[in-house]
Amino acid sequence: MTKATETGLTFFALSAIYFALLTGVIPTPTKIHDEILPFLPWWGLVTFGSYALATLGWGIVTFKDKEHKYRELKVQIEEAKQFYRSKGLDLDE
């Protein structure tokens, strides 16, 4: 199973549980139904956004710790510059 399939299946399962709780198929106390359930999608969105930004930030902070990947990227950048110069494109440095 691919990562996209796993993610889609998880999202579908969580959505099904959420809508079952929201519509009353799965009974919940009134306080939970009225005060917590309406905010769960926003909480999930904010949590996912925070996780995504933290992962991106950590990857940027620790990029130079991965010397092999750093050197590989520098070589690829130089190859791209040479390629575009050979095509007559003036690059700003």
From TrEMBL:
InterPro entries: DPM3 (IPR013174). GO terms for cellular component: dolichol-phosphate-mannose synthase complex; endoplasmic reticulum membrane. It is found in: Endoplasmic reticulum membrane. Its main location: endoplasmic reticulum. It is a multi-pass membrane protein. Keywords: Endoplasmic reticulum, Glycosyltransferase, Membrane, Transferase, Transmembrane, Transmembrane helix. GO terms for molecular function: glycosyltransferase activity. Pathway: Protein modification; protein glycosylation. The keyword Cell inner membrane does not apply. GO terms for biological process: GPI anchor biosynthetic process. The keyword Transferase applies. The chain crosses the membrane at residues 7-27, 39-61. Stabilizer subunit of the dolichol-phosphate mannose (DPM) synthase complex; tethers catalytic subunit to the ER. Belongs to the DPM3 family. Component of the dolichol-phosphate mannose (DPM) synthase complex. This is Dolichol-phosphate mannosyltransferase subunit 3. It comes from Candida viswanathii.
